[in-house]
Automatic annotation (TrEMBL):
Keywords, sorted A to Z: Membrane, Transmembrane, Transmembrane helix
Domain GGDEF: 255-385
EC number: 2.7.7.65
Superkingdom, natural source: Bacteria
The protein's name: diguanylate cyclase
Catalytic class of the enzyme: transferase
Residue ranges crossing the lipid bilayer per the database entry: 50-74, 80-98, 110-132, 138-159, 166-185, 197-222
SMART domains: GGDEF
PROSITE patterns per UniProt: GGDEF
C-alpha cells in the first residue's frame, strides 16, 4: 500500500471505527464484489424500504387533494385529483404486489418503479400548472409542486446503496431538472434556478453519504453474522445458505458443482496434550492456509469443530481434485509437537454423483471423508471404490 492510500485508509477507519476492514472499502463504491449473502440481504432490505416508501406516498398523495380543493379553481383541482389518485393506485399496487426474491436486479426494478411514479406525476402536474395564471395562496401552493424532486432525492437516504447506485438513481432527476431549465432558457430566473439546482446536488450528496453509512453498517453486521468468530471462515448457517443457492443455480444451468469435506487428523490430541488455545491456533492457521489457495468464487465454511466444507461452484470432479491437491500441497500448518497438520478429505460433485439435493451432496462428501480416515488419513477420496478401481485399471 502506498503512503497516500495508507493515510486515506487511516482517516476513513477513524471515521468509521470497527465497521469496515480494508478489503471491504471498495464495496462502498460498487456492488460487483459483494458477497452473495450480502447481496441477497441488501436486495430484501431495499424492496422492503421501497414498499415502506410506497405506503407513505399512497397515504399522503390523495390527502393533499384537500389542500388543492381549497386553493385551486375546480377544473385544475379535478385534473390534479385524477393524477393524484392514479399515482396513489400505482403506489398501492407496488406496496401490495411487489415482493423480494433476493435478487439485486429485482430490487433495482422496485426502486425504478418507485421513483418513476412521482416523476411522471411531477412532469404531468408541472405541465398542467403552466396553463393557469395563479396568484396569492394558489401560486404559493402551485410552487410547492416544484419541490417534488427534492423529496425524491432526499428519499435516497433510506436505502443502503453504493456510491455508483446512488449516482445512477439520482442522475435522471438531475438531468431532467437541467433539461427543464434549458427549455425555459428565455424566461428563466437564472439565480433562482442555479440556487435550486445546487441545493438538489447537495441533497444528493448528503443522501448518498447516508446510504453509504447504512451500507457500511450493514456490511459489518452481515460479516459478524455470517463469519465464524474464531477462524473467520463462513459459519455453518451461512454456508448452508450459500450451498443451497449455488446448488439451485447449478441445477438450473446443468452446471457442475462440487464440495469437499475436510477434517483435521488427530485434532483431539492437540487439544488434549497442548490445550484448547493450541487447538484454536491450529484451526486459524489451517483456515488462513486454505483461504490463500481458494479460487475466486470458492467458499470455505466451518461446519463444526475441526470439520470444514469447501464449496466450489462451476467445478467438475476432476477440477475439484486438482484444487484440493493444490490446497494439500500448500499445507495446513504445523502441529505443536512437530510435523505437519494433515486432513482427511472427501469430495462430491452434483452431476457426477447424481445428487438430488445439496444435503445428499454434503452427506456423500462426508461419507467419503470418513472413508479417507478409515483408509489411513491424510488422503482424498472422491469416487466410489468400483469407480476408482475402473479408473486406475
Amino acid at each position: 500500500m502506498s503512503p497516500l492510500s495508507a493515510m486515506v485508509w487511516q482517516r476513513l477507519t477513524g471515521l468509521m471505527p470497527g465497521e469496515l476492514n480494508q478489503g471491504e472499502l471498495s464495496w462502498l463504491a460498487t456492488p460487483h464484489r459483494h458477497l452473495s449473502l450480502l447481496a441477497r440481504r441488501r436486495a430484501t432490505l431495499i424492496v422492503n424500504r421501497v414498499r415502506l416508501f410506497a405506503f407513505l406516498f399512497a397515504v399522503l398523495t390523495p390527502m393533499w387533494s384537500v389542500v388543492d380543493f381549497i386553493v385551486f379553481p375546480f377544473p385544475l383541482w379535478r385534473e390534479l385529483a385524477l393524477m393524484r389518485f392514479a399515482a396513489c393506485a400505482a403506489f398501492a399496487s407496488l406496496l401490495v404486489y411487489y415482493r423480494s426474491n433476493g435478487d439485486l436486479f429485482n430490487a433495482y426494478r422496485a426502486m425504478a418503479l418507485l421513483f418513476a411514479i412521482p416523476t411522471v406525476f411531477y412532469v404531468a402536474s408541472h405541465t398542467l400548472l403552466t396553463y393557469y395564471e395563479l396568484t396569492g395562496m394558489s401560486a404559493a401552493i402551485g410552487a410547492g409542486y416544484a419541490f417534488l424532486p427534492f423529496v425524491l432525492l432526499a428519499g435516497l437516504s433510506i436505502f443502503p446503496l453504493t456510491l455508483v447506485e446512488s449516482l445512477v438513481v439520482a442522475s435522471p432527476i438531475l438531468i431532467c431538472q437541467a433539461v427543464s431549465g434549458y427549455l425555459r432558457w428565455a424566461a428563466m430566473d437564472w439565480p433562482s434556478f442555479a440556487g435550486a439546482f445546487w441545493l438538489l446536488v447537495l441533497i444528493t450528496g448528503v443522501a448518498a453519504l447516508a446510504g453509504l453509512c447504512q451500507l457500511a453498517f450493514m456490511i459489518a453486521l452481515v460479516r459478524q453474522a455470517i463469519r465464524d468468530p474464531l477462524t473467520g471462515a463462513f459459519s455453518r448457517s451461512s454456508g448452508t445458505e450459500i450451498i443451497d443457492l449455488h446448488f439451485t443455480l447449478a441445477r438450473r444451468a446443468n452446471a457442475p458443482f462440487a464440495v469437499a469435506f475436510l477434517d483435521l487428523d488427530h485434532f483431539k490430541r492437540i487439544n488434549d496434550q497442548f490445550g484448547h488455545e493450541a487447538g484454536d491456533r491450529a484451526l486459524i492457521t489451517m483456515t488462513e492456509s486454505v483461504s490463500r489457495q481458494l479460487r475466486h468464487g470458492d467458499v470455505l465454511a466451518r461446519w463444526g469443530g475441526e470439520e470444514f466444507l469447501l464449496i466450489m461452484p462451476g467445478t467438475t470432479i476432476e477440477q475439484a481434485e486438482t484444487a484440493i491437491e493444490r490446497v494439500r500441497k500448500a499445507g495446513f500448518g504445523e502441529r505443536p509437537e512437530g510435523g505437519r497438520v494433515t486432513a482427511s478429505i472427501g469430495i462430491a460433485e452434483s452431476r457426477a454423483d447424481r445428487a438430488s439435493d445439496w444435503k445428499d451432496l454434503v452427506e456423500l462428501a462426508d461419507q467419503r471423508m470418513y472413508r479417507a480416515k478409515q483408509e489411513g488419513r491424510d488422503r482424498v477420496v472422491s469416487r466410489e471404490p468400483a469407480e476408482a478401481a475402473a479408473i486406475s485399471a
